[in-house]
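Re: the multi-chain job from yesterday

Posting the exact lines I submitted so nobody has to dig through the queue logs.
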Amino acid sequence: MRAVFSVALLSFKEGLRQRVLYGVVLAALLMMSGAVLVSGFFLRDISKVILDFSLATVTLGGLTIPLFLAIHMLARDIERRTVFSLLSRPISRGQYLFGKFNGLLLLTGLVMLFLSIGVYLSLECGEFLFGERFFVTVSWNSIFAALFLSFLSVMILNALAVFWSTLTTSSFLATLLTVFSYVIGHFVDDVVRFLQVNTTGVEISSSIKQVVEIAKYSFPNLAAFDVKSVAAHGMVIPLADVVFLTFYAGIYCSLLLTLATIFFRRRDLA
Amino acid sequence: MIQAEHLSKKYTGHLGRKPTLALSDVSLHVKEKEIFGIVGPNGAGKSTLLKILLGLVKASSGIASLNGVSVSEIRSRQQLGYLPENPCLYDSLSVVDHLNFIARLYQLPKDLLSKRMDDVLTRVGLDDVAHRSLRTYSKGMVQRAALACALFTEPDLLILDEPMSGLDPLGRKMVLDIIREYNSRGNTVLFCSHVLNDVERICDRIAIMNKGKLVVTVTPQQLQQEEGDSPLESLFMRTVLEEGSA
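And the result, structure tokens for all chains:
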């Protein structure tokens, strides 16, 4: 546990020193400010537009951690052999990976928390500029649930980034595979539903159906975590869904990290 | 202290590349309180041998242990300091950040931490720049920072892979002095180097590796029988030329 905590803290510190992080946070805050100004063009839908924009910005900001920092911090650790300075200490490879993942999670949490404050400020600014009557449908419970689920989806992507980094020898390939996983995770549900609908005159080959079936069970259903539009409309996100998705994310990440550890243990760090 | 029996390592070839035999039936015994040097041409298998001892690479056959503990167990690295060839530390962090990480890992008490940090940073000559990020360091300074990390826990065993690489003459002298001082406190040092003069000057025993094999092990006394200004160089050249390098 001590080793995991030490590696996590080191990774967190290392992540905080990456300038790209501050660029992303600044860009995200600018986008949110822009959303407040632009929302004035959408009378009646002001709160929805602000929320749509700012919640999407939080997710985008969070996504930079697995897609840029995680790969940079893990695959390059192996590529540049920085990992030697850690694994020559009494740290097992599993502890190293779990530590890295937890460090990334801390970083993701911090960035998303910071941007969530931005969401709150955007709504407050909108209310101040356009009046309270446009914000009566805002549901803070739904906003919190949407932000939390967005955090969980980024957590899964962090685990995927760790997983791909241990399987490949190049940081570029690991980035590519993580991006693919994100895209598949977001659209596999739509493709499955499309295949289930009986469209007359369209013949879909059985091999495509099989590939989609494999993708459905191998990749996480990230679309299920995307409830931004529900929150933007001020609708209720059932607690049971949030609890179920939390377990789903937890189990999926544990499985990925266990597999990553198995592969990483077998790997020669020459 | 270090025991290796019949170690072999074959790297499997990927994408049509031929497999490489990096190490072939190497047996090695390094005694406590000894400075043991390994020399050999590029590709002789020195770094692979060290990486097996550190658990970074798994041997294809044979066994190795540190302090009687198999290298496959993480507790074998509890009392170990390692300086890799071309050390790569986190360049966005400072040497103090690295030392704090090690202190946290080994649960060093706070009072001991600050004293030991001051000692080791002064020893490697980085006390003035300890809080600067490593990306502002020269190659030699990074080497010294990595040495500070290796020495920080005062380990029983120090494994150094090309410790003099990238250092100016003053830096080289400093590293040699540190190795001697460290050894005089009863600790063991295993190191690889291309600089034969340095190895000759400080080692209790020297092994010459070539083509993945440990060809010969000699003591300085045995070296005196060799001819020339640098007996180790004569022996090295003769051994490597006889065998042909990798």
